[in-house]
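Appendix B, Record 12. Input sequence as logged:
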Amino acid sequence: MPSTSETGHAKNVANFEDLISFCTAYGAVYNPSKESLTITKLKELETAAKQTLQQVKTNKTGFDNATNERQTAFKDLKPLATKIVNALAVSGASTLSLNDAKTVNRKIQGTKANGVAKIATIPANPNAPIVTDKTISTSQQSYDSVIDHFSKIIETVSQETNYKPNETELKTVTLQAKLNNLKATNTGLINGYTNWSNSRISRNSVLYNPLTGLVQTALDVKKYVKSVFGATSPQFKQVSGLEFTNVKDR
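Logged structural output:
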């Protein structure tokens, strides 16, 4: 379901299209001296607005897909880390290596040595909507930490000569491939969020720039129609009922 703000953006553009239709129907009488209010410029602004709305939708879908891909990549990481520690424990590894691996695993699992207190770990709901720079930053720090912890476990077992598991998923080459995938999906989400964020900035500029934006232009058109036809004219009644709002939740 589209958010209230997204619906508001679309409503502004739809009403702007109605506004252009009315002004076009006025024929030669509609003849503003200000170039930005001419029918040609209004249509250009309408096209630009529609394009920015579509770009936001496209990039939001890309961000959602990247979120799902990262969630899938990280889904089995906790049990995998535990398997690695268990395999290391039965391999005859040194106590030092095993303790190092256990320490890092606790960080991945999100617990301290007593198994109670929480530490930074994979967010409980990696697929939850992320709509602010603050929440995306906080979430990102958690994922960056988990990737770093997992790389440390790989480094530990790679340097342990006794760690030679027969299971494919536990072999160091497989673990390294897993790490690379975690990094790739994490980077994909970062880029996806950047694209989505930038497209919203572009949309906001086209729609809400205080001088050249769609909303301000629409308000200027209304004033012009009022000046030409009069405040009580049926023409002004046509356009005065069209609402244009600066959507605050962007």
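Residues 4-240 form one domain.
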